[in-house]
Amino acid sequence: MKDPSVPTFYTNRALCYLRLQRWDLVCKDCSTAIERDPNCLKAYYFMGVAFTEKGNHDEAINLLQKANDLAMKQRQSYGDEITSMIRLCRKRRWNRQEEKRISQEIDLQVYLHRLIEEEKQRQLGQLRSEWDDGDVASSSASSSADASVEKKAAELERYHQEKKSELDRLLSEVDDRRKRRDVPDYLCGKISFELMRDPVITPSGITYDRRDIDEHLRRVGHFDPVTRMELTQDLLIPNLAMKEVVDLFLSKNEWAVDY
What we know:
- The protein is mainly alpha-helical.
- Helix content is 68%, strand content 3%.
- The chain has a three-stranded antiparallel β-sheet.
- α4 runs antiparallel to α5 and α5 packs antiparallel against α6.
- The radius of gyration is 31 Å and the shape is elongated.
């Protein structure tokens, strides 16, 4: 390397490593580039991609968000490259959390099945114990008692099987609802990538969440983050149609409040 103080050399090599899928080397070179230039946009982006592929989604989102903030601040146009990677990373993180929840529910289902089975065996054992301790005088009485015990045992079997079936039905309903969990990209803001609560539209026709675009105008500058056209707060108009769509979605998907 001719000049190790130039961050571009490290980001160029990191890009090569990125295409070779050598994620640790990507992170190493990007870290070095950031040490030499804390505002090295490409380093944050490449390292965010690498962390995404390594499955470290929280750190990846922080890095990609930093890259996106720098792109806005430096007024560099990356199209949808950075934002689409943030959405991808958020979805992968969400899917991993879903997989964990599903695994926990399966463990819970197995555990509850075992408890029901143990309770059934305990009650059957108690029933047989009471029968063994009884004193039956005649064979006819003994035959009648046997039939009574068998009938009670069958009722216990049926009762606990119904409990298991009801448990499976409830968990299946939860699973069916969870399989449909997905927040459409068009309901998410283009800055925070979270579900919009107060959507507003700019003269360029781009919709943002009011909180996000207000913060952008205060901290970064008076321009549209996507189109780069001049923009001030008084030009923001509530997007009532989008607000209605978001409210309808939330009314049918309460889990999305925490998305």
